[in-house]
Amino acid sequence: MTASRVPRPAPDGTRDDAANVRLEQENAQLRQAVASHARIDQALGILIATHRMPPAAGFEVLREVSQRTNTKLHTVAETVVGWALGQPLPESVGQELEAAVQRHSREPDSPEVRTG
User: Fold this and answer.
1) Residue-wise pLDDT tens digits, 84-104
2) Which of 89, 1, 106 is nearest to 51 (CA)?
């Protein structure tokens, strides 16, 4: 029989302070993960709409830009969403994004990424 990772409540129905801290930390991590995934999904939708590419190709574009610029995936996603809202792309991200889109685009005449 394995032990449960979640501490059992005390007889009075309360949890000890250490258990409360762990649960709060886990809850905060889960909230951050949900927000990060939402931003990645938004960036993916932007790439799909602007470059008419399938979702898998859009995700590969985001992943490649992340790896080639040594930037966290969620940060690249935030940058792409900002770009869609009119903010300029950092030059390195713009160059890598354009190159990755060209590598994964189904349509050679899909709109270009503009970095300015």
Assistant:
1) 999 999 999 999 999 999 999
2) 106
Where do we find the tokens 């979702």? 55
Quote the CA–CA distance of 100 and 102 in Å, as a whole number.
5
CB 96 within 8 A of CB 73: no
Question: Is the pLDDT score of 15 beyond 90?
Answer: no
| The length of the chain, given as a count of residues | 116
Distance CA 53, CA 102 (A): 10
Q: How many CB atoms lie within 10 A of CB 74?
A: 19
Sign of torsion over alpha carbons 36, 57, 99, 102? negative
Q: What is the 3-state secondary structure (H, E, C) of the chain?
A: CCCCCCCCCCCCCCCCHHHHHHHHHHHHHHHHHHHHHHHHHHHHHHHHHHHCCCHHHHHHHHHHHHHHHCCCHHHHHHHHHHHHCCCCCCHHHHHHHHHHHHHHCCCCCCCCCCCC
